[in-house]
Amino acid sequence: MSIRRRKGAEPATSCALAEPPNGRTPSMGERRAWRPDGFSIIASVFAIIGMLTLLYPNIASWISQYNQSRIVSEYGLRVAAASLEKEAQLQRAREYNEGLRVGAVLEGNVSIPKSEGESEGTEGEYRSILSLNDSGLMGRIRIPSIELDLPIYHGTDDQTLLEGIGHLEGTSLPVGGSDTRTVLTGHRGLAQARMFTDLDAVEIGDVFTLEVFGEVLAYRVSEKKVVEPEATESLQAVPGKDLAALVTCTPIGINTHRILLTGERIALPAAKGSPAPFSAPTVPGFPWWALGLAATIIAIGLYIRWAGSPRSPRRARAR
């Protein structure tokens, strides 16, 4: 029997060609899937590395200040808990100051002052005075005019000056008193920490405070000068005066001279503009750099998503 095909009917083979082999029509998502773009990812990685490199000083400085503020807060709590030991420690410090005979010298071409002073007792005894534990923490210095709030440590070795401000052994301990000059020194120009970088911005008449074992001492800057490292007379005590000297190196990175600020003791109530005694640290402030970093990462993520997205025929032809 013959089979007749109706006029206008499609060949049988045409139906087989129109149907996919698996019998299922591919979805739009299957035909246009997101694919990572290698060039965009590499470019984005370099962009993030560049951003982190630019922000590193800000990030490292903020983290350093945050850690120092935490240390200062813990110091205040420990001093409050050691109220019975307070007077004994202060008395030992005054006796140490009585035993001092000469000032101190700052060697040339180095960033750390070196003491030539002598006092009764050994270095171990020095580090045990005004000390709550083995950390070497001695007190706290605040300079409101440059928003500085840092811990003070015994000594001026490299590791100490990376953590905070160092007290120069051989000079008066920061407990005040007639015929005394305490010398505090700090690094300047560190990428990872601020320290005394802005000390040159402090002006005559500005007030800074030292907090040591519950005592708050206020000093008004009376002299600001740049001295040779061998100018030891600038660090010696002056009869009848209660002085505090702040020292750092200059120019930054060369360290051939010293910025020397001298503050003269004033009564605390007269310290106009000075921070409230024993107040909590306010440094560091809000990390604005984090907003820029977050915005950059979000923008890069959106760019990678866009670069790997399937393009319409019109976009493809435009490329």
Q: Order of strands across the widest beta sheet?
A: 1-2-3-4-7-8-6-5
**Percent range for helical residues?**
25-40%
Low-confidence stretches: 105-121
Total count of strands: 8
- The tally of domains stands at 1
Mean of residue pLDDT values: 79
Strand content: 15-25%
Question: In CATH terms, what is the architecture?
Answer: Beta Barrel
Radius of gyration: 34 Å
Number of alpha- plus pi-helical segments: 8
CATH class: Mainly Beta
Q: What string, H for helix and E for strand, traces the elements in order?
A: HHHHHEEHEEEEEEHH
Distance N to C terminus:
60 Å
Structure description:
The active site is at residues 187, 249. GO terms for molecular function: hydrolase activity. The protein is α+β, with helices and mostly antiparallel strands and 319 residues long. The protein has a single domain (50-288), classed as Sortase (Sortase, Chain: A). It is built from 8 helices and 8 strands; from the N terminus they run αααααββαββββββαα. Strands 1-2-3-4-7-8-6-5 form an 8-stranded mixed β-barrel. The longest helix is centred in the first third of the chain and has 44 residues, at 38-81. The two termini are 60 Å apart. The model is unreliable at 105-121 (pLDDT under 50).
